[in-house]
Amino acid sequence: xxxxxxxxxxxxxxxxxxxxxxxxxxxxxxxxxxxxxxxxxxxxxxxxxxxxxxxxxxxxxxxxxxxxxxxxxxxxxxxxxxxxxxxxxxxxxxxxxxxxxxxxxxxxxxxxxxxxxxxxxxxxxxxxxxxxxxxxxxxxxxxxxxxxxxxxxxxxxxxxxxxxxxxxxxxxxxxxxxxxxxxxxxxxxxxxxxxxxxxxxxxxxxxxxxxxxxxxxxxxxxxxxxxxxxxxxxxxxxxxxxxxxxxxxxxxxxxxxxxxxxxxxxxxxxxxxxxxxxxxxxxxxxxxxxxxxxxxxxxxxxxxxxxxxxxxxxxxxxxxxxxxxxxxxxxxxxxxxxxxxxxxxxxxxxxxxxxxxxxxxxxxxxxxxxxxxxxxxxxx
Length: 380
Hints:
Blueprint: E1 5-6, H1 16-22, H2 32-49, E2 56-58, H3 62-71, E3 79-84, H4 87-98, E4 102-107, H5 116-125, E5 131-135, E6 137-138, E7 143-144, H6 147-157, E8 162-166, E9 185-189, E10 201-205, H7 207-215, H8 225-233, H9 243-259, H10 261-281, E11 285-286, E12 296-300, H11 307-318, E13 320-321, E14 323-324, E15 334-337, H12 344-360, H13 367-379
Parallel strand pairs: 1-13, 3-4, 3-5, 5-8, 8-9
Antiparallel strand pairs: 2-10, 6-7, 9-10, 11-12, 12-15, 14-15
Helix pairs in contact: 1-9, 2-9, 3-4, 5-6, 10-12, 10-13, 11-12, 12-13
């Protein structure tokens, strides 16, 4: 008998403390009790993101928040610059197409980070683009883009160009560079390092972004960010919120405050190093060697080993659920999620389970060497 362990890049494990908070009797979303929960969540989110203005809560997944960001700042015929280096980078272009917005795309090879030269070139070619859109962490390829340096280049060349960052899988795993000085819209999602169920997105906007929202003709009733802002000033949301998840967010933020943001970032960096060290000792090709993200580690199995068969073996033999590849890498890679409520020994469990499963499939694996490599990062 094995316990089920969830080590995917979303959804992620939820702490018992957060589950207990969400199991309390349902609150009516217009009640004074929930308004206090909402106010607390707003203040907590500002602290968590290091943001001066109150972020917006949307009852949707991260893709809905990405769409809301473009809906509220761009009109048909506008141009945006997008960084396409994976499944989620490509999503900006797909959303833009539906909204009749032109996408000037920076194509980045999968497994690599966007270069500053590519960013500079794109801004020169489309200097009047309404927005520059990028993932901080490209979850599908496990790459961490150099967002801070990239956005400083954008702002230096085109100060009025909005910078929109998908921080859904990077929020609380690596610091958000620059804050509202260089980031105009920042998006986070509940089912990642926030240690919550799917269904809540957080959207933080800079003063420049709010001016863009107010000057852009409204094209959505539900995703009207200015309407949401007015509702929050009155202590509530425009529509029925993800109220239970917001209550859970308050419990999660208490845990974040207790651990401290700097320690949270150090923990995720350690988990990433442990996963990479163990995988290399197995003979796996680890993705994003030059720009690994601290939230998820991807790899190609050793030659002759089918990725999906290996992932299935780890699940059936050891009770650990890992993620497969997406898009062009579907069936080719495996991804270990280690964000949120994950500790070093759980990552070591995943490394051990992979080494055992690989050996059962005929690979020559020195399990002691693998475990030593992984735990060596913990003791360094």
